Amino acid sequence: MTQTTTQSHYPNLSTHEEIVSRTLSVIVDNEPGVLARVIGLFSGRGYNIDSLTVTETEHEKHISRITIATKGTPMVIEQIKHQLERLVPVHRVHDLTETGQPLERELALVKVQGKGEKRIEALRMAEIFRAEVIDASTEHFVFEFSARSSKVDQFISIMNELGLVEVARTGIAAIARGRGLV
Questions:
Q1: How far apart are CA 181 and CA 164, in angstroms?
Q2: What CATH code would you report for 16-95?
Q3: Spatial CA neighbour of 89 closest among 161, 47, 51, 36
């Protein structure tokens, strides 16, 4: 009998190491290839990215902010942060989760198809969740919904039972609470 083992950067469950979720803010130069280098750091080491958003935030200075949601042991998270800090186009890495509960939002566009009672129920649930109808016909709705990712998941789960057709999600946008600058 041959036993095979696989290497993983995630802990063996028998070691009882805690897996934590972290939201990282990475301030970088906005230049070609930077995002690929950041993603390459994760994929090359077997780390997973749960959510990724990026956009230029300071147009005059050509600075972008990459927001990354990831999971791992505290040791793995520290490794990720230190390796990101060593990349040349990275100005700073800030663990938003470490400094308190960051403000996080995700935008979702949710297309639901249905008639009769399911259509009425979809509209009622959208109103409860404060989702906005941005497109409609006699057979479908497209809802725009912005909330924490867990709330977006909940809304999508409900719409799945009511005729969900398609979902587009932006990924997390996050910022630290309070006065401090990241």
A1: 40
A2: 3.30.70.260
A3: 36
The residue assigned the tokens 């070691």 is 15
Q: Which helix (H) or strand (E) holds 95?
A: strand 90-95
Q: How far is C-alpha 134 from the chain's CA centre?
A: 23
> What is the per-residue pLDDT across 66-113, written as a single tens digit (0 to 9) for each?
999 999 889 989 999 999 999 989 999 999 998 888 999 999 999 999
Which CATH code is given to the segment(s) 103-175? 3.30.70.1150
CATH 3.30.70.260 intervals, the chain: 16-95
Q: Is the pTM of this model over 0.85?
A: no
Positive or negative, the Cα torsion across 160, 162, 167, 169? Answer: negative
One DSSP character per residue, 8-50 reads -SSPPGGG-PPPEEEEEEEEEE--TTHHHHHHHHHHHTT--EE
Tell me: the pLDDT tens digits for 103-159? 999 999 999 999 999 999 999 999 999 999 999 999 999 999 999 999 999 999 999
